[in-house]
């Protein structure tokens, strides 16, 4: 990990906790939660967020290790540094939680989301939508004479930008997976 | 060697293998196979309660007074939902209990079957962990894991939901030694560098203070002994939360009394004025801290807690130590001795002189009366007349609970059972039965208010059936005293629904249950009445008619700091924000 890429508030490279929890600025953090893949575990994690009044901006979950019964939950949340710290500790103490990583605090990470976007239209709007699809490196995965479904993978911001441009061109439906994220390097 | 058996037999076998001697429970359709197994053995005693909430509070009382986990067994649906208050109570106060619930057969789950409820869904936020076991092959291992989770780390309640077909089906029994528990192994040793730093801080502190909590008691008797040794060797004063009473003896030379909303003047001012606060197994509850922004403004704060999420949750501390209180105190004591047993003698002597000044305020003094029994007087007499006994105290919730904490002294841990975090009215009577079942020869007293006591009074039937000679010491003011007090001080003396009308005649009620009832209203008769209660070999309902409008002081009103305590009901002083320091 490059020392230069440490984000504001990161603590992993410092001997001291540099975060001031009395600072009332909300930050967005991406947490990777490795859990035992068992019934109810997602409800347990979500219940913690609703029960203690924490935010969820995005959430994805899937089994990542079939033999080890491990699932990975990726949560994008918002809060003051003190709240983020509490969320991490509250998650860590849950019995079926094996590990919690604050990808935002631990260093640089890669974040990706997949979206399927349906655009309905004819004529110039349809051609313009296809042109934007090329510019954004999206893929056409379904086509009729009056519609496209685009598949796009990218950061949430890139998907937002793409969707915003498609809105006047006939965007009718959008399905997003939520963020999946991994820390860079090893 | 493997053993094949039904799920129902597995439950009983697993409980035996976990050393369980008593189960508190109530049968019903979905747990009948387990009750059939209980019927056919003699190792585990079953205490039939009168309401499932009672079963869970009894398990809590049993657990808190023995240090061992308590077990409750209830049926599906209403049995499980009635257990919810007890589970939440145990979660808030970190009490290790295992609740077994029956469930409709697996193939009926989700069909709104008779007495079906989503028990794991309902109890997920009020247990440390819960399981729905859908396969008999996993049942015994799950029960062993449940005991492990309930007792390791920060203790808490766990629940296992067992469908009826899983109880009937047969599979191999897994003994405790073969059960997988490796995935839940909380850290118990504190970081040694941090512990050394703690010792350095207390060596130089001028006004140090131990602020101890229920964590010391949960850690075990050794932790209490280490606390006593450490506090006495350093001369550092000790205050405690409601949950921690008895960890440091009330007769100890370092004891300065309970702190908090109804804590002692000297304890709260010591919290406010200390320069080093050592939080040992407490959690900065809002009943303790008062206004956060003015909480102990001049102190460095050290926090020892086995639960990392308790640290920096409410109060930001300077030195966090995650670990078991007993282990951390042991290491700290060793390091302190190795470094030459240094303390700031001069500073601490001045500190004690200051505390002695505060003590002169005599914050617990009250207006005595020769005509009516003051609740404080009743507790003073109870304390005096029971001091020599092997005594356990439980309480309900309200004024009487605070007076009990102020006027009764506890010299050992596990002797004081009260609902702290959740504040559950109706806790004390069933808890006292749980304690008495664990300690049949001891004197067990539930200090109660009449309103709280009525909430679970059906359990007197349990006390009678199982010959639990619990003494129900009811301070009867015919009021919801604490509610009334708040209405007097904060709601313009508008006493909305805070009096107890149509109260039963407690003496006749006792007779109806088949036990002894005593009523006393004249202070002159009080001692004899208490002695009569103590002499009776069986449960007693003691109706102590006390002053109806007595208020509990000192009091830190919500949102006020520690140095803005009320010492009397002079409401005008309160309204003008008078500071009593």
TrEMBL record, chain A:
<keyword id="KW-0100">Branched-chain amino acid biosynthesis</keyword>
<comment type="similarity">
    <text>Belongs to the acetolactate synthase small subunit family.</text>
</comment>
<comment type="pathway">
    <text>Amino-acid biosynthesis; L-valine biosynthesis; L-valine from pyruvate: step 1/4.</text>
</comment>
<comment type="subunit">
    <text>Dimer of large and small chains.</text>
</comment>
<dbReference type="InterPro" id="IPR027271">
    <property type="entry name" value="Acetolactate_synth/TF_NikR_C"/>
</dbReference>
<dbReference type="Pfam" id="PF10369">
    <property type="entry name" value="ALS_ss_C"/>
</dbReference>
<dbReference type="InterPro" id="IPR004789">
    <property type="entry name" value="Acetalactate_synth_ssu"/>
</dbReference>
<dbReference type="InterPro" id="IPR045865">
    <property type="entry name" value="ACT-like_dom_sf"/>
</dbReference>
<keyword id="KW-0808">Transferase</keyword>
<dbReference type="InterPro" id="IPR002912">
    <property type="entry name" value="ACT_dom"/>
</dbReference>
<dbReference type="Pfam" id="PF22629">
    <property type="entry name" value="ACT_AHAS_ss"/>
</dbReference>
<dbReference type="InterPro" id="IPR054480">
    <property type="entry name" value="AHAS_small-like_ACT"/>
</dbReference>
<comment type="pathway">
    <text>Amino-acid biosynthesis; L-isoleucine biosynthesis; L-isoleucine from 2-oxobutanoate: step 1/4.</text>
</comment>
<feature type="domain" description="ACT">
    <location>
        <begin position="30"/>
        <end position="105"/>
    </location>
</feature>
<dbReference type="InterPro" id="IPR019455">
    <property type="entry name" value="Acetolactate_synth_ssu_C"/>
</dbReference>
<dbReference type="GO" id="GO:0003984">
    <property type="term" value="F:acetolactate synthase activity"/>
</dbReference>
<protein>
    <recommendedName>
        <fullName>Acetolactate synthase small subunit</fullName>
        <ecNumber>2.2.1.6</ecNumber>
    </recommendedName>
</protein>
<comment type="function">
    <text>Catalyzes the conversion of 2 pyruvate molecules into acetolactate in the first common step of the biosynthetic pathway of the branched-amino acids such as leucine, isoleucine, and valine.</text>
</comment>
<keyword id="KW-0028">Amino-acid biosynthesis</keyword>
<dbReference type="InterPro" id="IPR039557">
    <property type="entry name" value="AHAS_ACT"/>
</dbReference>
From TrEMBL, chain B:
<feature type="domain" description="Thiamine pyrophosphate enzyme N-terminal TPP-binding">
    <location>
        <begin position="5"/>
        <end position="120"/>
    </location>
</feature>
<dbReference type="InterPro" id="IPR011766">
    <property type="entry name" value="TPP_enzyme_TPP-bd"/>
</dbReference>
<keyword id="KW-0808">Transferase</keyword>
<dbReference type="InterPro" id="IPR029061">
    <property type="entry name" value="THDP-binding"/>
</dbReference>
<keyword id="KW-0100">Branched-chain amino acid biosynthesis</keyword>
<dbReference type="InterPro" id="IPR039368">
    <property type="entry name" value="AHAS_TPP"/>
</dbReference>
<dbReference type="InterPro" id="IPR012000">
    <property type="entry name" value="Thiamin_PyroP_enz_cen_dom"/>
</dbReference>
<feature type="domain" description="Thiamine pyrophosphate enzyme central">
    <location>
        <begin position="196"/>
        <end position="330"/>
    </location>
</feature>
<protein>
    <recommendedName>
        <fullName>Acetolactate synthase</fullName>
        <ecNumber>2.2.1.6</ecNumber>
    </recommendedName>
</protein>
<keyword id="KW-0460">Magnesium</keyword>
<dbReference type="InterPro" id="IPR029035">
    <property type="entry name" value="DHS-like_NAD/FAD-binding_dom"/>
</dbReference>
<dbReference type="GO" id="GO:0003984">
    <property type="term" value="F:acetolactate synthase activity"/>
</dbReference>
<keyword id="KW-0786">Thiamine pyrophosphate</keyword>
<dbReference type="InterPro" id="IPR012001">
    <property type="entry name" value="Thiamin_PyroP_enz_TPP-bd_dom"/>
</dbReference>
<comment type="similarity">
    <text>Belongs to the TPP enzyme family.</text>
</comment>
<dbReference type="Pfam" id="PF02775">
    <property type="entry name" value="TPP_enzyme_C"/>
</dbReference>
<comment type="pathway">
    <text>Amino-acid biosynthesis; L-valine biosynthesis; L-valine from pyruvate: step 1/4.</text>
</comment>
<dbReference type="Pfam" id="PF02776">
    <property type="entry name" value="TPP_enzyme_N"/>
</dbReference>
<keyword id="KW-0479">Metal-binding</keyword>
<dbReference type="InterPro" id="IPR045229">
    <property type="entry name" value="TPP_enz"/>
</dbReference>
<dbReference type="Pfam" id="PF00205">
    <property type="entry name" value="TPP_enzyme_M"/>
</dbReference>
<dbReference type="InterPro" id="IPR012846">
    <property type="entry name" value="Acetolactate_synth_lsu"/>
</dbReference>
């Amino acid at each position: 990990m490059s020392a230069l890429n440490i984000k504001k508030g990161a603590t992993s490279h410092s001997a001291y906790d540099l975060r001031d929890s009395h600072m009332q600025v909300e930050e967005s953090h991406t947490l990777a939660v490795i859990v035992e893949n068992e019934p109810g575990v997602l409800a347990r994690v979500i219940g913690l967020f609703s029960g203690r009044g924490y935010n969820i901006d995005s959430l994805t979950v899937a089994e990542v290790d079939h033999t080890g019964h491990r699932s990975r939950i990726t949560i994008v949340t918002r809060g003051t540094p003190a709240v983020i710290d509490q969320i991490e500790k509250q998650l860590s103490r849950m019995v079926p939680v094996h590990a919690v990583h604050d990808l935002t605090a631990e260093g640089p990470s890669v974040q990706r989301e997949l979206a399927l976007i349906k655009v309905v239209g004819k004529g110039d709007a349809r051609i313009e939508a296809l042109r934007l699809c090329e510019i954004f490196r999206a893929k056409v995965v379904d086509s009729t004479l009056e519609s496209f479904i685009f598949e796009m993978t990218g950061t949430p911001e890139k998907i937002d930008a793409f969707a915003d441009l498609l809105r006047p061109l006939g965007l009718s439906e959008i399905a997003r997976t939520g963020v999946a994220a991994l820390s860079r390097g090893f | 060697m493997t053993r094949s058996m039904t799920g129902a037999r597995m439950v009983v076998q697993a409980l035996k293998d976990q050393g369980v001697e008593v189960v508190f429970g109530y049968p019903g359709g979905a747990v009948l196979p387990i009750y059939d197994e209980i019927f056919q053995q003699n190792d585990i005693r079953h205490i039939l309660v009168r309401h499932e909430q009672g079963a869970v509070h009894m398990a809590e009382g049993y657990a808190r007074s023995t240090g061992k986990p308590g077990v409750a067994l209830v049926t599906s649906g209403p049995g499980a939902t009635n257990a919810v208050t007890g589970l939440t109570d145990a979660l808030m106060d970190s009490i290790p209990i295992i609740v077994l619930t029956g469930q409709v057969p697996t193939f009926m789950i989700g069909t709104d079957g008779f007495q079906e409820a989503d028990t794991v869904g309902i109890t997920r936020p009020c247990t440390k962990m819960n399981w729905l076991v859908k396969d008999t092959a996993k049942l015994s291992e799950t029960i062993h894991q449940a005991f492990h989770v309930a007792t390791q780390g920060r203790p808490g309640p766990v629940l296992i939901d067992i469908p009826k077909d899983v109880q009937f089906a047969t599979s191999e029994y897994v003994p405790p030694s073969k059960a997988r528990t490796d995935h839940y192994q909380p850290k118990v040793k504190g970081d040694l560098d941090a512990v050394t730093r703690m010792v350095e801080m207390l060596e130089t502190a001028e006004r140090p203070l131990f602020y101890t909590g229920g964590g010391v008691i949960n850690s075990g008797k050794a932790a209490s002994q280490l606390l006593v040794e450490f506090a006495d060797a350093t001369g550092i004063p000790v205050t405690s939360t409601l949950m921690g009473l008895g960890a440091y003896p009330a007769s100890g030379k370092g004891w300065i009394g309970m702190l908090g909303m109804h804590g002692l003047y000297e304890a709260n001012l010591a919290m406010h004025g200390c320069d080093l606060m050592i939080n040992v197994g407490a959690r900065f509850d809002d009943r303790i801290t008062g206004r956060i922004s003015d909480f102990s403004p001049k102190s460095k704060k050290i926090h020892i807690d086995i639960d990392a999420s308790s640290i920096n949750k409410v109060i930001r501390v300077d030195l966090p130590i995650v670990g078991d209180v007993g282990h951390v105190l042991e290491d700290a004591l060793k390091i302190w001795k190795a470094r030459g047993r240094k303390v700031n003698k001069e500073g601490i002597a001045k500190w004690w002189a200051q505390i002695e000044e505060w003590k002169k305020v005599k914050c617990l003094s009250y207006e005595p009366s020769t005509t009516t029994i003051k609740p404080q007087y009743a507790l003073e007499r109870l304390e005096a007349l029971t001091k020599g006994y092997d005594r356990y105290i439980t309480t309900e919730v309200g004024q009487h609970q605070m007076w009990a904490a102020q006027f009764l002294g506890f010299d050992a841990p596990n002797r004081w059972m009260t609902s702290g975090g959740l504040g559950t009215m109706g806790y004390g009577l069933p808890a006292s039965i749980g304690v008495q079942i664990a300690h049949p020869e001891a004197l067990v007293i539930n200090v109660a208010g009449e309103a709280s006591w009525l909430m679970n009074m059906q359990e007197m039937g349990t006390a009678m059936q199982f010959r639990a000679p619990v003494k129900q010491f009811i301070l009867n003011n015919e009021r919801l005293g604490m509610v009334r007090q708040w209405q007097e001080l904060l709601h313009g003396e508008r006493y909305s629904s805070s009096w107890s009308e149509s109260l039963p005649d407690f003496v006749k009620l006792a007779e109806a249950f088949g036990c002894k009832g005593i009523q006393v209203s004249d202070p002159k008769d009080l001692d004899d009445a208490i002695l009569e209660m103590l002499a009776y070999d069986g449960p007693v309902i003691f109706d102590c008619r006390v002053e109806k409008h007595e208020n509990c002081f000192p009091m830190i009103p919500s949102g006020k700091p520690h140095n803005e305590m009320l010492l009397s009901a002079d409401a005008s002083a309160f309204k003008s924000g008078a500071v009593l320091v």
